[in-house]
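Recall from the previous lesson that a structure prediction takes nothing but the amino acid sequence as input. Here we apply that procedure to DNA-binding response regulator from Hydrogenophaga crassostreae. The sequence below is the only information supplied.
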Amino acid sequence: MRILLVEDEPTLRAQLRQGLQDAGYAVDETDNGRDAHYLGDTEAFDAVVLDLGLPMLDGLSVLKRWRDDGRAMPVLILTARDNWSEKVAGIDAGADDYLTKPFHMEELLARLRALIRRANGQASPVLQCGALALDTRSGRVTLAGQPIALTSHEYKVLDYLMHRPGTVVSRSELTEHIYAQDFDRDSNTIEVFVGRLRKKLPSDLIETVRGMGYRLTAPA
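The prediction returns the following tokens.
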């Protein structure tokens, strides 16, 4: 999953970036509203962490422009302590959730997981496809109750597909959502990761839809 991090305070931004990356997210970041608006309008993100007090263009304006442009990715806003009017304004502008500074990284990660699940029509933190289960809280993957060891990139591909069961996902979409913008992207490597997953999972779980991409389907 790919996250856009928008925070102008360098120390906090570095801490957030590290925490998100440690949790397995691909992270793009910026410290100002102008670049945030551009990235959100031109790149594919699964969620955004958005501070409201930004230079060049404030976070509330950025959020309003995204929503006016039809950008529907979940947005978690960061607000100052006890500034209730800022929270209300953020929610009214189209934010999906808010977090008051200071906060614990674990809470931010939990809120992001919930936002991403809801955006994909998933309610439970444990994603299921037949006997396959992926716990979004722990990153643990099991098949019929037995743990499956995956590399970080194998996990990212499976995680994205598990959030979209029955939906055809193209190689380019997978590439956009598991790598940050500055990563040397190669959509051909997606085939490699899918091939490795098929060796560890039931072979018919990930279906190739010719000319379109991949679809996760539970066995009949």
